[in-house]
Amino acid sequence: MLALPQVSHAQLGISRPVGQQLLDGIAVKVDNQIILRSEIEGIMAQEAARAQGKPLPPDLRCKIVQSLVLNKLMIARAEVDSVTVTDAQVNGELDRRMNYFVQQVGSEKKLEELYNKPVRVLKEDLRPQVHDQLVQQKMQEQISGKVAITPREVKEYFDKVPKDSIPYFSTEVEVGQIVIPAQVNDAAKQAAIAQLNDLRARVLAGESFEALAKQYSQDPGSGAQGGYLGFFKKGELVPEYEAASRKLEPGQMSPVVESQFGFHLIQFIERKGDSYSTRHILLKPVTGTADASVAATKLTRIRSQILKDSISFSKAAKEFSTDKMTAANGGLLANRQDGGSRLPLDKLDPAIFFIIDTMKVGHITPPLPYRTDDGKEAMRILYLKSNTPPHQANLLDDYQKISQAALSQKKSRALDDWYEKNRDTVYLEVAPEYAQCKVLASNGQ
What we know:
This protein has 445 residues and is of the alpha+beta class. The chain has three domains: 9-132 and 429-444, Triger factor/SurA peptide-binding fold, CATH 1.10.4030; 168-183 and 289-392, Roll (Chitinase A, domain 3); 186-283, Chitinase A, domain 3. Helices cover 46% and strands 16% of the residues. A four-stranded antiparallel sheet has the order 9-4-11-10, with helices on one face. Strands 5-8-7-6 form a four-stranded antiparallel sheet, with helices on both faces. The protein has a three-stranded antiparallel sheet with strand order 2-1-13. A hairpin with a 2-residue loop joins strand 7 and strand 8 (275-283). The radius of gyration is 26 Å and the shape is globular. The N and C termini lie far apart (56 Å). 24% of the residues are buried. Mean pLDDT is 85; it is low at 1-11, 14-23 and 440-445. This is Peptidylprolyl isomerase.
């Protein structure tokens, strides 16, 4: 039996209650924004765990303080510069986080047991923090989003790296995939439609839509809130859901609506300007393993065409793969660290590693069972495009990584310049134990 992953308060991002904040102590105030001692020490503890017993840099704590102050300064300046985010953006991020942690622990009920709170309360606890994080991201994008790097700057950056500090990369591979979902059989679809029609009839007979959504909806983000999704503008929800919603008046229910997420029963709540709010009950038909045979047949045909050079793997992925992230990149999996397509072999998902470890470059697997990030059954074929042996970094083989590092440094300087320009526009108060940090001195001295 697999143990449940441990989800910490820091991972989930739930802030401590106000009473605990007062006991904890404020390290820095930036206008009406505060940084707690526990935030700084929590990051220090994380860095110590990563270091695995190795000594930490002596200036690490001050660097953490400076980074946190920069974040708070961006939020404070955002209020002055009228940089805002919408409720729909905040709700979307809250739903994404809840869905992720529900997947991590196994179910919505287990997440609620872990925190001894309903998902609805967890989301409300998170709302201020998520709002600030999105505002900060928007400010950062305005400050450094347009910063670009030239090939000459990349070379100059690399030439300045001391020879004994040039990194050594382990074996790296480029892996592509084409994903086709298993088909839901008609019987499963009809069962979901029939259940939603039954629930619709129960609401019309006087039962509470919200109570039924809490009991039956399979949307982990909204189910605990009686199906409530919040306010959205045109184009922010999937087309089928939006089209059905905008035909309704307050209190009215839609017929059963099918989207990429499953089948919905929608109840319209209200309009505010160009936004509208709804609640829904979502049912996801169960996909039987036998239904994967259609996807496997299609992938076998695609694989055959690629092997016969009738179509390239990249073009086939763009045309046929339902995994949007990789399809847009010709099927290639992306390295989340630098955005490139080369992946360290020792960091690969074991499900991929044990397959490609015995493959030759250019080979394509037959169709293999696969489960998508949202838990749906599918089939996929894997393609080993390249296999780069261990080597010391160089501009020819590692331009993407070096370019990303150079760009990151340039963006960091842009943020530092913005900080120096704006630091005197806000009220800054610092606890004595952090007074030695450079962030507190003028011009970084």
